[in-house]
Amino acid sequence: MNVTFLGTAAAEGVPQLWCRCEYCQIVRQRGGKSIRFRTATLINDDLLIDAGPDLSPAAARLGVDLAAVRALLITHPHYDHLEPDSLRARGRYWDGTALPPLTVYASRASLDLLGHGADLGALQMEPRPIAPFQRFEISTGGAAVVDPRVPRAADFPATPVRWYEVWTLAAEHSLPEDEAMLFVIRQTAGPEAREGATGATLFYGTDTGPFPEATWAALDRLAVQGVRCGAVVIDATFGTGKNLKQPGAHLTIRQMVQHQQSLARRGLLTDNAQRLAIHFSHYFTPPHDELLALLAPDEITPAYDGLTITVS
To answer: Exposed, middle or buried, 252 (CB in 10 Å: 0-12/13-18/19+)?
Structure first.
């Protein structure tokens, strides 16, 4: 399973557009890996997690397109993770590329936001309501697709068939009715899958404070079932915690490390699991090089825009 981080910042982006704090000024001078768009992640080339306001420039900067994406998982309806205009660009106001249908897996609050004032059918999008503590399967790829909206365009070509198994967990974030979620995603079929293997598995936990007890209980049940994650990605929005006034909706670096360690103790990680942090804020998080050194003693990698990892 290949995982590409399109963006790794918190809601403000890094640097923040209107900010002259110490970190933002350093980032503007250095550029490179310290420049961060709002968080979104691409699995292989057909499963997208979140679609915020930076989706278009993030993809353009990395030289990737999202035409092959067949499934979209939404963590929660905050604007930095779900900006409907990013998806309304799928509308056919001109003759362009034929697109396959896109299935959107999201809470009802997220789907309500996405569907407000939009005809999802005209966007080749199919909503699928999900909630915390569910398990479902996602199928992507398949035969060539005819897009009836662009009859003069060539068919969208056949793409590899992949299957993913997804478990949803409750995040400690946002209003209860938003049903913010964490995901455990296992690829069970596709060209990357190894014959006889149980499937590469990713734990994806952005935008959360300390995990709720119900989430730890669900994770313990997954451990008993033999689920082992080859990569773990966890929120570290509050960074060093310096000047933090209201803890709770996100994690500091120290809390993120503790959550990584707890997952390992509970038997949820493979022996060579990759451990990463994500969703960084300019308020609390130093530029990339300093952050890399800060996380090195705990063998955790700060994700950066454009990083691709292979999960096994």
So the answer is: buried
